[in-house]
Write a structure and sequence with these properties.
alpha/beta; 6-stranded parallel sheet; globular; 14% strand
Length: 185
């Protein structure tokens, strides 16, 4: 209830450390093209720069929350409309927050950077995968989900199914056990 009163509901959510490879500059530039409500959770070395960029662009619907508890993160995931994860460099190896979004049945937006992010987020199934560093394709992806809530809801459903199929602790333990079995035979 606290977060519902503070940030509302139905927003794009980013969760992560605010680092150079997270693509948040591109996200803010995309919001200058078409503004959507965005909540950014996390802190890090780029926090001041990103807040200054948001102010310079005159963005009114971006909220920086800093670090929060896991309990609060789950509350925000449940209140969100979709996860946006614009990491634009291979320094982003996987993207655990994409899994958290999928676990909560949220459609995902990520970039094709040749890492695990595109395994988590299957383009046009669990969400949209865009060109890294491209503010226009990111803005278009956000608009596609926002303007098509039924499609976004279906992608969120598919994201949750993919999470359950590949990423639960039980499923990962089975995969490791099978790998070890194959290695010893």
């Amino acid at each position: 209830e606290h977060w519902k009163q503070t940030v509302g509901q139905g927003f794009f959510l980013f969760v992560g450390v605010l680092r150079y490879y997270k693509g948040l500059n591109t996200l803010l530039d995309a919001l200058a093209i078409r503004e959507f409500p965005v909540v950014i959770v996390g802190s890090g070395p780029m926090e001041s720069e990103l807040k200054a960029q948001a102010a310079e662009l005159g963005l009114k619907s971006v909220v920086f929350l800093g670090q929060i508890s896991d309990e609060d993160k789950i509350a925000l995931l449940n209140l969100s409309f979709a996860m946006v994860f614009p990491s634009n460099l291979r320094s982003e190896a996987f993207g655990v927050s994409l899994l958290e979004g999928a676990m909560c049945g949220k459609p995902l937006i990520s970039c094709e950077i040749g890492t695990g992010t595109s395994f988590v987020n299957e383009h046009n199934v669990t969400g949209l995968v865009v060109t890294p560093g491209d503010k226009l394709s990111l803005a278009d992806a956000m608009a596609t989900l926002w303007d098509n809530p039924g499609r976004a809801q279906q992608m969120g459903y598919e994201a949750e199914l993919r999470y359950k199929k590949y990423f639960t602790a039980d499923q990962m333990a089975k995969c490791y056990a099978e790998l070890y079995r194959r290695l010893v035979t």
